[in-house]
Amino acid sequence: xxxxxxxxxxxxxxxxxxxxxxxxxxxxxxxxxxxxxxxxxxxxxxxxxxxxxxxxxxxxxxxxxxxxxxxxxxxxxxxxxxxxxxxxxxxxxxxxxxxxxxxxxxxxxxxxxxxxxxxxxxxxxxxxxxxxxxxxxxxxxxxxxxxxxxxxxxxxxxxxxxxxxxxxxxxxxxxxxxxxxxxxxxxxxxx
Length: 191
Fold this sequence. Notes:
Blueprint: H1 5-13, E1 24-31, E2 48-53, E3 59-64, E4 75-77, E5 86-92, H2 100-116, H3 120-130, H4 149-161, H5 167-173
Antiparallel strand pairs: 1-2, 1-4, 2-3, 3-5
Helix pairs in contact: 2-3
């Protein structure tokens, strides 16, 4: 095998972006006896939690520690080091594999995550700028209440022109999103 200097230089220059791992997650559904259908998972009969990460909005499957019961909408630590409630992160989930309860809780969890962040504007705007597909049929932007396919494409087209800089910038460039944070949430009053 002959490796040219050009190949080595090219490989050094191409730095892969570091993927930030989730530190915390919000529980969307807790199945104390595992999945109802055994063909959905190899963990049959063991407790499983479906959750969404608070940083990258990653859909996750978690295994709680023995004797720990989780509540829907609990925020749990899943980062490195000592975890109080979670034994391990089993992996990422596709939207299609979410339970009905997780799908219902998802929009409320995202809303609560965005509103509760101290630096929510920067993080949320970054999410608008970098959100990608969750699956072949679902885009991360569609997880935000009130955003469907049409608004998703409007957002993607605008961010191709120039990254969003603030909530105000999003509202001005995508008029349908007059208030990007307080979209379609009947459960919590807008703040």
